[in-house]
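Lab notebook: predicted structure, single chain.

Context: the supervisor wants predicted structures on file for every construct in the current expression panel, including those that have not yet been purified. This is the next one on the list. No modifications to the sequence; it matches the entry in the shared construct table.
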Amino acid sequence: MTNNARRSFWRTLLAFAIIYFVWGSTFLAIRIGVREVPPLTLAAMRFLVAGIVLYGWMILQGERSPSRRQWLSALLLAALIFVVDYGLLFWAEQRVPSGIAAVMMATIPLFMALSEILFLRTQRLTIRLALALVIGLAGVSVLMSHSFRLDDVPINRSGAVALLVASISWSVASVLTRKLPLPESKLMSSGSQMLAGGALLAIAAALFGEFAKFHPLSVSVAAWASLLYLIIAGSIVAFTAYVWLIHHELPTKVGTYAYVNPIVAVLLGYFAGGEPLGVRTILGTAFVLISVVVLTTARPYRISSAE
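Prediction complete. Output recorded below exactly as produced.
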């Protein structure tokens, strides 16, 4: 192996480690932060700072600022991704263990497939897709339902519903991303969306009266450290690694983070966060992850315009 090949191998390995373990660990960091900081306020600080850094860095690199139409697209996506998706995720983690939150968010590929089948009509419902959807929904039912007599209690219902709505919102945003005018640079596109999302989250936090409940001097070092970790590692470093991988590896390989992150989050929540890990959690997690693996490894049956 040449020096260049060796360096490329280690860069790839490091990038995968970052998106696997850093993104998987952000769920516990959120859980720690929302114990002391109002959820929308915490989310606003995370994405506003990360957005300013990414956007500012791209401007310094000579990248053009988004056009008016691109800013409008960024605002729409920011509302769906950061206000609805992340806002509900941060809110739900006051009520739902971080590992379970990660598992519920792993249903995003299921809702994306459903949106393509029902609304865009760009994909047909095959037996494999139907099986994946049924298994995934069964996993969600196990986690939420009181009907199953398992050793641990179901997760908080309002938190679970919030996470499902968050997953649907991300799925809708993912579909719209393909159709809306956005900057060609993925980093500029992400930076502008984070910046817009952070600003919208700050407005939402003010409207819900969170600023009156937020007392910075009473927040512990652990909560501030979790915010710093979310900004630097979770948003800036991990997303940069993700963008680099998208340009150097097959999308199917990069997409494996979708079923590695929940495993990392569940184990980290159990060993580091003291979260319960009973039969219900293990069974529900297994169902959801099996469905995601079946879905993401299937060859999509896409409908052409001629059909």
